[in-house]
Design a protein that fits this description.
The complex is a heterodimer of chains A (411) and B (139). Chain A is built from 14 helices and 17 strands. Chain A is an alpha/beta fold and 411 residues long. Chain A has two domains: 133 residues, Aspartate Aminotransferase, domain 1 (Alpha-Beta Complex), CATH 3.90.1150; 253 residues, Aspartate Aminotransferase, domain 2 (3-Layer(aba) Sandwich), CATH 3.40.640.10. Chain A has a seven-stranded mixed sheet, with helices on both faces. Chain A is globular, with a radius of gyration of 22 Å. The N and C termini of chain A lie far apart (56 Å). Chain B has a three-stranded antiparallel sheet with strand order 1-2-3. The chains are: A alpha/beta (411), B alpha+beta (139).
């Protein structure tokens, strides 16, 4: 069903597809190393956004007219493309949400409402706030207990400790596939098997993995997999919750409104079937269609080669940064992806970030919405360079020179 | 020099810089020169928490004028604090409360006072003005 043919991996050609990468900021060529926060968008997606609002704009699932039917067809085709890409059994297992945070909240409210006092939720010490706070709120509502599996200094999950925390009381393991701050790739296949062995469900936060590697939810056998469109080359404001059908079927709706109902009377409302039961109100139609386009684009990329390229970039950057005195790489997991986080003795990450910005380099500084993780390392934050497959070694050379210049100014 | 003149003087000083890095080099030097607040005095009530950097502000009212000391854990933030204090220190509360700090955008640093920057500076200016208002209403 792919419309684009997969080509041998070629960074130069891929960069051509991303107009945002060809611009200057403060008179310098932009170097975009903030892909962990959001990715740039390929022409295929940009053109689709323009086309939708120029020619197709209509509400979906309810109109009898031409435009509405066309928008509905395209929106549902996007769902099917995502289903196929993820290896889900049915399109009904793909729920469109606002993003990763919304997907996790949906599970925390809906699946969470089936839990009882004393039931346990197991997360890890490297979670993003969006995979901590919804569970804390659930614990407050339902009397569940939040358990946190610790990590070692390298930023790897300590599996022995994880095993100890996993028990018959565990009803859900909610864990990130890849740490947004450290780049650690968690052994989710092993985690999923172990969790299932004690009867627990598993939610994988895929916000940082879907754009870096091929994901197959059937092979992983996870119960939920969630991600945001904007980090995987699609528009902002939309994301996905994959859930196993039998589980989603048993879960109550999260929000009420239009589209999610079968029949409404003032006495009683019956709910629509999957996936619409979880999609109240007019969705982000253009977003859904264009997220489909982002996956069409991804299908044209040799993701194994892309992943190798990204890991090479990270290794290359780390080896060079390691030579700076007082610089500490935060996150040294054996299995890590293209995130390079570092802190500098006596220098605030904000200062480095500001000076890099003025040299045309976009990085993220701060706690990256992982405050407990910063507490673990005893630092206020890090400077984080996060790469995508369109980044190059030449960009890293420029970046390292810019770090050097910034340090000479700040010391 | 009044508030406006002090700001115009800063704007003139910044005119000599050709590029951003020179500008920031100067701001960093200002930050390094600014007197520190002792760690013992970096108390919760003086803290203005930003998402990125943190600012501590201490103010005194003496002979009808206000005096400030401030510090930050980030040196660029501190340099900008130095500029703000240079403009506002020793002024009467009513001048501070109504001050239009136009020099910040004139020298291209408005991003540091935007709500999204989260470096504590916007909070610091708000608190400076609140302190000033307290002294106006007490007068």
């Amino acid at each position: 069903m792919s419309n684009l043919e997969q080509k041998p991996f070629n960074v130069r050609e891929i960069r051509e597809e991303f107009p945002a990468l060809r611009q200057q900021v403060y008179g310098k060529n932009l170097i975009y190393f903030d892909n962990g926060a959001t990715s740039q968008k390929p022409k295929l997606v940009l053109d689709a956004i323009n086309l939708f609002y120029s020619k197709e704009n209509a509400n979906i699932h309810r109109g009898v007219h031409y435009l509405s039917q066309r928008a509905t067809t395209d929106y549902e085709a996007a769902r099917q493309r995502i289903q196929r890409y993820l290896g889900a059994r049915k399109p009904e297992e793909i729920i469109f949400t606002k993003g990763t945070t919304d997907s996790i909240n949906l599970v925390a409210f809906s699946y969470g409402s089936t839990l009882s006092a004393g039931d346990e939720i197991l997360i890890s010490a490297m979670e993003h706030h969006s995979n901590i706070v919804p569970w804390q709120m659930l614990c407050e509502r339902q009397g569940c207990i939040l358990k946190v599996a610790p990590i070692n200094q390298r930023g790897e999950l300590i599996m022995d400790e994880f095993d100890k925390l996993l028990s018959k009381k565990t009803k859900l393991v909610a864990i990130t596939h890849i740490s947004n701050t450290l780049g650690t790739v968690n052994p989710i296949k092993e985690i999923i098997q172990k969790a299932h062995a004690v009867g627990s469900k598993v939610l994988i936060d895929g916000a940082q993995s879907i754009q870096h590697m091929r994901i197959n939810v059937k092979e992983l056998d996870c119960d939920f997999y969630v991600f945001s469109s904007h980090k995987v080359f699609g528009p902002t404001g939309i994301g996905v919750l994959y859930g196993k059908e039998e589980l989603l079927d048993r879960m109550p709706p999260y929000q009420g409104g239009g589209d999610m109902i079968a029949r409404v009377t003032f006495e009683r409302t019956t709910y629509n079937e999957l996936p619409f039961k979880f999609e109240a109100g007019t969705p982000h139609i253009a977003g859904g269609i264009c997220l489909g386009k982002a996956f069409e684009f991804l299908e044209s990329i040799d993701m194994e080669a892309a992943e190798r390229h990204e890991r090479e970039l990270a290794k290359y950057a780390e080896d060079m940064l390691d030579t700076f005195e007082g610089l500490q790489i935060i996150g040294e997991a054996k299995n890590k992806t293209s995130v390079v986080s570092f802190s500098l003795k006596g220098i605030h990450p904000f200062d480095i970030g500001t000076l890099l910005d003025k040299q045309g380099i976009a990085v993220r500084t701060g706690h990256h919405c992982t405050q407990p993780l910063m507490d673990f390392y005893g630092i206020p934050g890090t400077v984080r360079a996060s790469f995508a497959f369109y980044n190059t070694k030449q960009e890293i050379d420029t970046f390292v020179e810019a770090v050097e210049r910034s340090l000479s100014m700040l010391k | 020099m009044n508030l406006t003149e002090k700001q115009e003087e800063i704007i003139q000083e910044f005119e000599v810089f050709d590029d951003w890095m020179e500008k920031y080099e100067y701001i960093i030097d200002l930050g390094k020169d600014l007197p520190k607040i002792d760690d013992a005095n970096k108390t919760e009530d003086r803290l203005i928490e930003g998402c990125q950097s943190r600012v501590w502000l201490d103010s005194h009212f003496n002979n009808g004028k206000m005096h400030f000391t401030a510090d930050s854990d980030a040196i660029i933030t501190k340099g900008i604090i130095g500029l703000l204090i240079r403009v506002l220190d020793g002024e009467e509360p009513k001048n501070i409360a109504t001050a239009d700090l136009f020099f910040i955008s004139k020298i291209g640093l408005q991003e540091h006072l935007s709500p999204t920057r989260a470096n504590g500076l916007l909070g610091m200016v708000k608190r400076l003005k609140l302190e000033a208002i307290k002294h106006i209403s007490a007068a």
